[in-house]
Amino acid sequence: MNDKFEIETKSLQQFKPITLSEMDEVKLMNRTDTKFVFPRSILSEVLETLSHTYRILEINGKRISSYQTLYFDTVNFQFYLDHHNGRGDRFKVRIRNYVESELFFLEIKNKYKGRTDKKRIRLEGFEHEFSSLSDEFVKGIVGEDAKLEAKLWNSFSRITLVNQAEKERLTLDLNLGFSWKDKEETFSSTVIGELKQENVNRNSLFYSLMKKKGVLPNSISKYCIGAISLNPELKYNNFKAKTLLLDKIHNYDK
Q1: Is 32 helix (H, G, I), strand (E, B) or coil?
Q2: In CATH, what class is 3-252?
Q3: What is this structure's pTM?
Q4: Nearest residue to 41 via CA among 248, 217, 254
Q5: How far apart are CA 24 and CA 200, in angstroms?
Q6: SS3 at position 220
Q7: Using CA atoms, how far apart are residues 127 and 216, in angstroms rounded to an integer?
Q8: For residues 64-76, average pLDDT
């Protein structure tokens, strides 16, 4: 990767660390999520601004964590279309590997009335087809008629920050990659910041910083980015502004 995209170690080392067990106090499984998409070239500057207000998750001495995700949807991508069409009550189903923690979870996120409710169960590994236990868990939340199949792989790196004064977490996702069968797509210039709060607080330092940088909240999800990238036949007219933004960031950081 080009040197200008490299996160300077000193930017991450300026943060006080927080452990995984200490983060239990800010799990925020029922919360509001506010996302921002911005070019990676400004990430070091953003980190330096945040370093005195947030602590950084550190696992085994590492401050950037690796994630691998397998997303599920109906045969006709109904979950994707629900997001695209702006449905207020929608689901996302995935199996995620938290690499450094050596943990696998089947996770279901239900977005409704502007809030996100996340439920999950522990697994031993990835399942391309749900076990009976996983199938029961999914149907108990999504509905008995839920017939889901694996749709795409996603990998990314994450910086996790925890506000020292407020009940708030901030994740910064980078090195986004998507694949399925013989198709691959990467977004190395893009950072997705997600502010997780009990209720939306626009006075948050990160929220204010994004506003100052001219970066507006953006509801696009990693799953939707991957689905569009790997399946160009999908309906995406309501996401055109989002895809144009991704193209602009890619060209901005060339």
Answers
A1: strand
A2: mainly beta
A3: 0.89
A4: 254
A5: 20
A6: coil
A7: 36
A8: 97
